[in-house]
Amino acid sequence: MTQVPSLIGQTFGVGTGLGQFDGAHRGRFVTAMLSLTQFLPLFFLLAAVIAIFAPRLRCHFVERRYGLMPDHPLMAPAARPTPAPGEVPEPHFHDRMTAFLNEHAPGTQLRLSTQSGLSARVYPSSWRGTRVGVFAPLVHLWETDVEAAHAVLLHELGHLRRGEQHVAGLGSPFTTLVRVWPYVLGGMVALPVTMLFVTGDATARLTLAEVVLVLFSVPKVLLLVVAALWSAELGADRYAAEAVGPGTLVRALRRLEQGDHGGLARLYHPPVRARIWFASRGESGRAQLLLTLLWPAALLAQPLLAMLGAMPAYVLLGASQDRATREVLALAHDTLTTDPAWWATLAAVLVWPLATSVRSWAGGRPAFSISPRVYATAALFPAVVLLVGLLPLTSRPAGDVFADGPDGRATASTGVPSQGGGSADGTSTACPSRSAPADPPRPPGLPSFTREGPAAPGGSAPHPADGPRTFRTLNVTSVEALSGSKVQAQDLGDRLRGARWTLHRDGSLSADVAGVPVLRSTDVSDTTRWLTGRRTERTDVSAATTWMEARLVLDTHQPPRLDVIRAATQAMRAVVDCREFTAMSSTAQRLSLTLGEQP
Length: 599
Prior knowledge:
Strand content: 15-25%
Number of strands: 11
Shape: elongated
Largest sheet: 8 strands, antiparallel
Order of helices and strands: HHHHEEEHHHHHHHHHHHHHEHEEEEEEE
Radius of gyration: 34 Å
């Protein structure tokens, strides 16, 4: 959750910078959607923490959401023949289920629901209390194959033995995150980005690089959640298989496969075929090894996803293929030691024998046991990864990452990290400061309005035709894209259509349109005034400068005309893990406006 303030600051900074560069504000909208996508896993993590400290609130929500009741009236005992004299009537399935739960986990409460999407789920009712929700498919299975139903309940009690009902189970925010994630990617990434490119936005190339990074960075969080949920499910299956036998558990999995694990449930439950394979081979060394390495494998996939996302992002921002490859390899190598999850995993594996001994001494039973060979492999895996990260196998090359632009300036650059980094001569280099970029330069090659004939002396002085005078844009007679897309030029024309212009007494011209600087007179004749203006707006990560040249023609025989040349350049800079990333983009338009003077 410590990432939230920095992510919010970066979102506002980048969004404001794109807003200055993109008059239609589409770049800002897409940036906001991408940032919200990055926030979402953190929000679910916060919800999970709240759920842990508020189990009664979660219990109330779960039972209302799924219609769970102590003794559901729609699940009344089926009509049975009157027992013969001396015959003991068969108890109701609710009583038999309750007796089974009390035998294996005293104090666990039973709740029933007529819904058919699930079979059984465990969830907390308080700090120490736990309930098992039973749904219609399990009730049917209890009546037809009671041993298989026992296996399903034992699976849920396997979660209970390890305390997983507080972070997983029914109503878990982690499960909800996995369930809604495909829709989040479709709604907050695919649709806005598609709109951005269909309309030909100026920030499309910069935003595409951010899209690639988001698409590959956020699933890293999801991958760890899925790995944790799968490990919990396979561990609970192993507990049930040890209690009733693997054959009974396999039979239960096959009976409940279609209704309990369809659709997106496959993301937070392992595929049934995989669960059957693990249940059938629970005591084999290969199954134990795969189960213990599931979490480290998910951690190792994180730098691979980072590499897949960083490579196209570097190329989109102008880096060469060779330089991008070297930068990505160096970044992945640094991640192996900077990620605290690897150190935590190694520590957890090393203290596992101590935790098992303490649990056995206290009279409990370990969650599951592993062979010494499997344990050695599980401890060796993170140790080898950390050793590879500590070895000087890669180094970040010196110099700018990105190729020089047409004007000879580097369009983006990368600084050298202060830890483990250095300059070309081997000396250490300080981490770049988190300051905004310098003011961008004026784009070269822009046309300008020139006066025909000699300039009047003191041309910047007030003129008899000076204001205060007020004009309104009546029509945009011509629009030309000097650089960038034609859609951008049309967007500027749409913003200036209907604008209100004020010619002040000092000869300056201002407009009521955002992003238009105040124009100062540089020369004046009997019917024409030449003006120029500049405006720079800065955020923590960007600087956007707008230049404007204008020619105001005030001929008594024709309507007032305003010719405009506008150029905008945006420089963006960010420092991430002591590495500096900058990018620059420009756009320019030429327009001619017909004005009408206002009384």
